[in-house]
Amino acid sequence: MARRTKKVGSTGRFGPRYGTRTKKVIREIEKIQRKRHLCPKCERYALKREVAGIWVCKKCGAKIAGGAYFPRSPTAEKILRTLTE
Question: Which CATH fold would you assign to the domain 36-85?
Answer without folding.
Answer: N-terminal domain of TfIIb (2.20.25)
